[in-house]
Write a structure and sequence with these properties.
2 domains; UDP-N-acetylmuramoyl-L-alanine:D-glutamate ligase; alpha/beta; binds potassium ion; 42% helix; ATP-binding; binds ligand NPW; elongated; Nnr; Rossmann fold; metal-binding; 478 residues
Amino acid sequence: MRTAYCVDTVRAAERDLMARLPEGALMQRAAAGLAAACADLVGRVYGRRVVLLVGSGDNGGDALYAGARLARRGAGVTAVQLAPGRTHAGGLAALRRAGGRTVAPEDAAGPIRRADLVLDGIVGIGGRGGLREDAARLAALADGSRAAVVAVDLPSGVEADTGEVRGAAVRADLTVTFGTHKPGLLVDPAREYAGSVRLVDIGLDLPGEPDLEALQHADVTRLLPVPGAESDKYRRGVVGIAAGSARYPGAAVLAVAGALRGGAGAVRYVGPAGHAVLARYPETLVSDQGPERAGRVQAWVVGPGAGDDAGTVAQVLASDVPVLIDADGLRLADVGAVRGRTAPTLMTPHAGEAAALLGVSREEVEAGRLAAVRELAGRYGAAVLLKGATTVVAGAGGGGVVRVNPTGTAWLATAGSGDVLSGLSGSLLAAGLSAVDAGSVGAYLHGLAGRFAAVGAPVGAHEVAEAVAGAWRDVVRG
Ligand SMILES: NC(=O)C1=CN([C@@H]2O[C@H](COP(=O)(O)OP(=O)(O)OC[C@H]3O[C@@H](n4cnc5c(N)ncnc54)[C@H](OP(=O)(O)O)[C@@H]3O)[C@@H](O)[C@H]2O)[C@@H](O)CC1
Ligand SMILES: [K+]
């Protein structure tokens, strides 16, 4: 499991550790890891031109000490001091001893243009809001140069705890972060600014429960349902799909396509698109009697392509099995009915649907995904999976750890892709996974399937469904 912790927790762990170590030891650990990562990135250090963007805090100190290490290995290092009177004194002295030089921000354009490598030590976890004007100018120069940009701890200008980007920020090729990932490194839009991320262990002792976690292959393997020798289709779970309408039969077909790949023993389809479903998937159990009379299921998926069929949504919500609500179902679901449920509920909106439920703009949801997913999970008392550039999953109530999906791909932003995900996660619910596990494992497989199906080219939702089995195998193989 990859984990991320908020700044307050990092600061507390840092204080505890510093009390037990000689002064400056932590910064030396950080700088050593940073210099090593830079050396790996550029291949050969000797003769490289390195520019350090140095702010007034310890983030600048890290950059200076790392710069000193690179200078000792033969790099030409120039530090741009944003606040000359407040630059980290020890770091500056170390750089000068190693032969590095300093320039004022107004003289930085030339060195940045000629640099092979720029280290962004403007701000780290002490930063607030977008970059100030002088810092933003340096960030723009670095962006326009041919140099590789390495962010120290975080790309300066992004919000460490939320992943928000409220103004100008550094765009890095690599971020070298210390002690733990910060939430902003895993959540868009900030994640996009970070480039690839390398974690340097500095020995922080962090609490058991993180603020964010991202499943890895091994975690997913552990959570996937595995049929036992005694399993029959009913023991493996039956997932009911109440989806589609005369107008949108395709949503039903795609939700069933996802459900067939999610580990449930059988898929029961209820709704007006039975013919379309059977034509494509003859193994589906089809009923047109409505959810209450369709026969036993272990979980329901309701909503994809449902149009205005509020009655079906209400019937499903009244059941005593886990329910996944998606698409039109989200709009049609009564808050009180969702809150009153005793079995687990998982809602799977995209940003636009979440915005409508919260009464805010889509941009607001996209800018602050973590806050939005927690807020929705709190209002509905349900687990919520918010789809998008970074898919995030909060447990019912919205408190506690939020799961972040690491496998997404932009190619998944295609019509019907969400229907496949709802079927897949619903199937995992029927197979016995908790709402958060079903959502996050579903998103993980779906993202991986999207990558496998796309391989760098556009892809249709049915191809994503077909690639789920390959994703499953890949996960199990490790
Ligand atoms: N935690 C750990 O375990 C370890 C932490 N370490 C390192 O310490 C870093 C934290 O250092 P930190 O606390 O000194 O804060 P930092 O990020 O340098 O920024 C503070 C300065 O930034 C300024 N500033 C603020 N906002 C700004 C903006 N928008 N645009 C421009 N400037 C802005 C603000 O200026 P002021 O408001 O005072 O004018 C203030 O002076 C951490 O990220 C890691 O790199 C490692 O060395 C070892 C282990
Ligand atoms: K930084």
